[in-house]
Amino acid sequence: MNTQSPLPAPGAPLQHYVSIAPFDLESVEAMTPEQSKVFQASQLRLMWWKFRKHRLALVSGIFLAVLYFGILICEFLAPYNLHSRNMDYIYSPPQKVHLFHNGEFVGPFVYGRQMMLDMDTLKRNYIENHDDVQRLHFFCKGDSYQFWGLIEGDRHFVCPAENGQLFLAGTDRLGRDVLSRMIYGARISLTIGLVGISFSFLLGIFIGGLAGYHGGIFDLIVQRIIEVLQSIPSIPLWLALAAIMPITWSPILIYFGITVILGLLDWTGLARAVRSKLLALREEDYVLAAQLMGAGSSRIIRRHLIPGFMSHLIATATLSIPGMILGETALSFLGLGLRAPITSWGILLTEARSVSVIAFYPWLLLPMLPVILVIMAFNFLGDGLRDAADPYK
Theoretical Cys-Cys bridge with 8: which of 12, 35, 175, 227, CB 3.0 to 4.6 Å? Predict the structure, then answer.
């Protein structure tokens, strides 16, 4: 049976059929729930999804968040006060935490120690007394302190047993607990990176934005200044600028002076990144529309151009923070940065400048461990943010 429609006769008008049903996009090109979720997500959510896939960056971000939360309560976390001295335990090596004693579960504890002086080398040797079990206490009362220099307190997360010792990272030449000083030093070493990059961030955006948007002679002068600054070796320049600071300055002024020095020397890379982006974006139509509506240069840069690549700037700034931390550590280690009574990781490493000290007391190099971990974490975090900055790739 022939079901085909007969062909129209030659010259006869063609018949047209128009559907009056409403057009449904999903019926034509149906999307799965996963596709619909991605299609309707905001750019910020897309960036988060892509960042979450970078496992190293996610773990690094959590690690850094824990560290920066810890510097808020470092007085509570440290077993001892920053300046507490245990003169009977000078250069005491790190103690091990045990859970079992003679096959029985006791809980976290350390063994007591006795000091023996080697008369040939004058080295202090500490021998564990396995009959002296010193259980650790948590959320306990210990050395008194001033929380952020304002509130008196004596509560600690962990404390030694009564008349006992707890030196998980050993002690230094004055019998001060190295772990407690590392926890206190994190407040300076970590915040100096944030404060320095904030100063560098503002300077780089301002100078790089004007150079990229206006161009001309201003751009030429800025590029020559950047080339001169980048051609000077970092360490000698740091030393020269740090030596300018008067020795009579208070520790707080020295802290801000080091921060300004690090910020002044680190803005060049960010300024060039901003300039290159603005050179491409200033030719866009929306910039011309803003100019025709009477918007000034500062408003166009601030409201229209910079938000377009802010995620890239955040990633760049994140990768610059390790340089700030290393700069402070190097200056303090060389004796031209922060000075006592301020405590930072660089100042703690000055205890290990002597080869003999490193040979006899290697635990004084432990402050180098958080420096390495923090720098690696910032680098991994910066890589993840840089990949997530363009979620459409």
Answer: 12
Which tokens in the block code for residue 207? 């100078």
This prediction has a pTM of 0.79
CB atoms within 10 A of CB 324: 26
What residues have CB less than 8 Å from 60, skipping those under 6 apart? 376, 377, 378, 380, 381, 384
| C-alpha span between 361 and 353 (Å, rounded) | 11
Q: Which residues of 87-107 are buried (b: 16+ CB within 10 A; e: fewer)?
A: eebbbbbebeeeeeeeeeeee
- CA dist 51 and 41 (Å) reads 15
Sign of CA dihedral 228, 230, 231, 234: positive
Tens of pLDDT, residues 95-128:
999 999 888 898 899 999 888 887 777 778 898 8
Q: What are phi and psi of 134, to 5 degrees?
A: -115, 100
**What is the per-residue pLDDT across 355-388, written as a single tens digit (0 to 9) for each?**
878 888 889 989 999 999 999 999 899 888 888 8
CA distance 224 to 231: 11
Sign of the Cα torsion 49, 51, 56, 60 reads: negative
How far apart are alpha carbons 208 and 273 in whole angstroms?
8
Helix axes 216-231, 178-214, angle to 10 degrees: 150
What are the CA-CA distances from residue 209 to residues 155, 261, 266 (Å)?
49, 22, 16
Q: Omega into 341 within 30° of 0, i.e. cis?
A: yes
Token readout for 232 is: 């000077």
Place of tokens 């004084």: 364
Cα–Cα dist 176/179, whole Å:
9
Asked whether 268 and 205 are in contact (CB, 8 A), the reply is no
Strands 123-135 and 104-118 turn out to be antiparallel
